[in-house]
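Residues determine shape. Next comes a sample protein:
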Amino acid sequence: MTEGTADAEAVEADGGRDRPQAHTVRLELADEPGQLLAALRPIADEGANLLSIFHERGHLTPRGRIPVEVDLKCPPSRFESVLDALRAEGVSIVEADAEQYGEHLMVMLVGDLVGTDLSDTVMSIESSPTATVEDLSLSAPGGPDDVASARLRIATQAGEAEAALKLVRTLAEEKQLHVVEPLTEGR
C-alpha cells in the first residue's frame, strides 16, 4: 500500500479528522556529535514523515545551543506522541505548532545586568516548563560597570504569557532591574 492510499483510507475512515498534516517543531540541540540524529530518531519511530530540516549550525541560541526547525507530517492524533518521544530523549522543544506554543512577548530589562548575571536570569526563565527565551539582544554602551539593557523575546505555550511576564517581573524585582513591558514586535 502506498502512502497516498493509506492517507486516503485514513481520511475515509475518520471523516478527515485525523488526516496527516504538516507540523513544525523548533528544537535546540547541544553542539555535540549525534544530537541531530538523536532528535530525528523519535520522529521516525513515532511514524511521522520528515518534510524538511533547517539546521542553523553557525547560529547559537541564548543558551548556547543550535536551533533546528523540523517540518514533519503526521495525523494530529499522533503529533503529541511525537513531542512526548522527543522530550523522553531529552530534546529541548522551543516551539511546536504555533497553536500550542504560539504566544510571544517582548520585554526589556534595564540595570546592572552583568553584576546580576543575565545568564542566570535567562536560565530562570528557561526553567519554566511553559516559556523559553527565543532571542536576546544586549546593549551595554558604557561597558560592564554601566547600566545595560537587554531585549528578550519570550515564547510561551498558549495562555501562559501572563505567567511568563509575572516570572520576569519577579526576577527583575529580586535583581533590582527595571522591566519595560510588553514591547510590540515589528515582525
